[in-house]
Every structure is written in structure tokens, then in C-alpha cells.
Specification:
Blueprint lengths: L4 E4 L2 E6 L4 E7 L10 E11 H4 L3 E7 L2 E9 L2 E5 L4 E4 L4 E5 L4 E7 L5 E10 L10 E5 L4 E3 L2 E7 L1 E2 L2 E2 L9 E7 L4 E5 L5 E13 L2 E3 L4 E4 L5 E17 L7 E3 L2 E3 L2 H14 E2 L2 E2 L29
Antiparallel strand pairs: 1-21, 2-3, 3-4, 4-11, 5-10, 6-9, 6-11, 7-8, 7-10, 9-12, 13-14, 14-17, 15-16, 17-22, 18-22, 19-20, 19-21, 19-22, 23-24, 25-26
InterPro entries: Pirin, Pirin_C_dom, Pirin_N_dom, RmlC-like_jellyroll, RmlC_Cupin_sf
Pfam families: Pirin, Pirin_C
Protein name: Pirin
């Protein structure tokens, strides 16, 4: 099959907070749910916190996935029910593995004036989706060449490699290109890839992207050729086709509709007037009411392939 490139455009959705911070979501979409194991891409900012209220996401649950937080500007305080308390900073990866179940909160710090970043989810395969929850932090050293700079936070690219644990082969990197720079990147032929543009204007081969666009590149490529039409920054994501059907609803990933219903019921049972009691999703040590799950739809959830 001849490799091809599709451009996925974003849609605005409210994330939460006192004035409903907006994010631009490019994955999942109706016709594409995954790029490798990457199953969720939100892009936000740069937002003036005084205008938007910043990020104020109270405790909420996850199953069957990893969350990868990557910032360009600002800081976010992370707390989870496994006892991890960390600050997400620009250029540093915070990777939370939900596994069988975890809950966490995300709140921009008091010193943050501008918030700008990406929130990414990774689906866990059948063999490890019920693993114990965990957390890793990694600050990749930049690698540089003429007109480019990269930070590889998952997998390997451009001679750099991340030590962070993944449960399927993955690629995750921030790439910056100077105006007029063309960079040919060697990539794994078995991977599908995504290029999400943060700022600037680039073309992937001859396909042009504007900010928040996500270019999907099918497997079969040994190189990606990216040209910056102006100074640009982007995320490069990748992995082999996931090979498993998933059910994804709200903050849960499972394999069947009934499994998701069960996760929702367990989360609701842990919320007592907004405050958590112990259970599958643990308890986050923060003085905030937890987020209740929305009502289930009136139709059975569909498998995503």
C-alpha cells in the first residue's frame, strides 16, 4: 500500500475551570481514533490565565491508558491517588500510567501567567492495561543541528532516545525548525506517524499544516520530510498500528461497553457529596470536589479500531 498523508483539523472543546478553558482536539476523530497507541491529542494556548482562569481540573478517574503532559509555557501541578505530586514544566515529560485505575487533578500554578501545551493519551495493550498505576518524569536533553532542535520524550529519533517506559513501541518528540529549514527525518517504516503543529507554518512532504493541524502519515515511510515556511514548533508522534479494538468514553478506555459502565459505576460509588472515598481509583490528596461522570449515552458504545 502506498503511504499517504491526511490532515486532521481540530475542534474546540471546553476543558473546565471557572471560565471554561478551551482546548483544540485533533484526536480522536470520527474517521481516525489512533495513531499507533496515541489515542487523544489536545492542544491549548497560549492563553492568558487572567482571561481564561487557567487549568483547574478537579480529581477525575482514568483506566487503561497513559497520560503524557507536555508544556511549552506555564506550569501545572499534578496530584494523583498513587501519591505522586509533581510540577509539569516546559520541555519535561510527566507520564502517568492509569492501568487498572487511578484518579488525579491538574491545576495551573499561581505563578503561571500564560498556559500553553498539549495533553496526550496512550492506549495500553491487553497484556498491561490492568497494571498497577505509576508515574514517571523525564527532562530530555535537546539535540540540535543546523536550523533545528528536538527533545525526544518517548522512543528514539534524530540520535536521541528516551528511557521512559512504554507498553507498545512509541515515538514522541518536540521539534523546532528555523524559517526555510527542510529536515529529512529517518523513521521506523512500520510506524504510522502524526505531526501536530504548535506554532508556525510547515509542510510535511507537500502537505501544508496550520497551527493545531495534525498530519497523519500511514506506515511504509522510511523518512519524513518537513519544511518550515516560517519558524515553527511541532510534536512528532508515532507507533505501529495498535492492532486492538478499544472502547473509549469520557476518561476511560476499556474493551466493551459493559466494562465502561462498570468503571463509571465504581467511580460514582467513590464520590460522597463530591469527596472521594477509597476504591479502584484511590483518593487524591487535594481539597477539591471530584468530577462526577456524565450520564451514559442511550446507545451502546462502539469499538474504535
Amino acid at each position: 500500500m502506498t503511504p499517504h498523508i491526511d490532515v486532521l483539523t481540530s475542534r474546540e472543546v471546553p476543558l473546565g475551570g471557572p471560565r471554561a478553558m478551551r482546548v483544540r482536539r485533533t484526536l480522536p476523530q470520527r474517521h481516525r481514533s489512533l495513531i499507533g497507541a496515541w489515542c487523544f491529542v489536545d492542544h491549548y494556548g497560549p492563553d492568558e490565565v487572567t482571561d481564561t482562569g487557567g487549568m483547574v481540573v478537579a480529581p477525575h478517574p482514568h483506566t487503561g491508558l497513559q497520560t503524557a503532559s507536555w508544556l511549552f509555557e506555564g506550569e501545572i501541578e499534578h496530584r494523583d491517588s498513587a501519591g505522586n505530586h509533581a510540577t509539569v514544566r516546559p520541555g519535561e515529560l510527566n507520564l502517568m500510567t492509569a492501568g487498572r485505575g487511578i484518579s488525579h487533578s491538574e491545576v495551573s500554578t499561581a505563578g503561571t501567567d500564560v498556559l500553553h501545551g498539549a495533553q496526550l493519551w496512550i492506549a495500553l495493550p491487553e497484556g498491561t492495561r490492568h497494571t498497577d498505576p505509576s508515574f514517571e518524569h523525564f527532562a530530555p536533553k535537546p539535540v540540535r543541528g543546523p536550523g533545528w532542535e528536538a527533545r525526544v520524550f518517548l522512543g528514539s529519533l534524530l540520535g536521541a532516545e528516551s528511557p521512559v517506559t512504554t507498553h507498545t513501541p512509541l515515538l514522541g518528540a518536540e521539534l523546532m525548525l528555523a524559517t526555510g529549514k527542510t529536515l529529512e527525518i529517518e523513521v521506523d517504516e512500520g510506524f504510522e506517524h502524526g505531526v501536530m503543529l504548535d506554532v508556525g507554518l510547515v509542510s510535511v512532504d507537500d502537505v501544508e499544516l496550520k497551527p493545531s493541524d495534525l498530519a497523519y502519515v500511514s506506515p511504509g515511510r522510511t523518512t519524513l520530510t518537513i519544511t518550515a515556511l516560517e519558524e515553527s514548533r511541532m510534536l512528532v508522534l508515532g507507533g505501529p498500528p495498535f492492532g486492538e479494538a478499544i472502547v473509549m468514553w469520557w476518561n476511560f478506555i476499556g474493551r466493551t461497553h459493559d466494562e465502561i459502565v462498570g468503571y463509571r459505576e465504581e467511580w460514582q460509588a467513590q464520590i460522597d457529596d463530591g469527596r472521594q472515598v477509597d476504591g479502584r481509583f484511590g483518593v487524591v490528596d487535594i481539597d477539591m470536589d471530584s468530577i462526577p461522570a456524565p450520564e451514559m449515552p442511550n446507545v451502546r458504545l462502539k469499538l474504535r479500531h
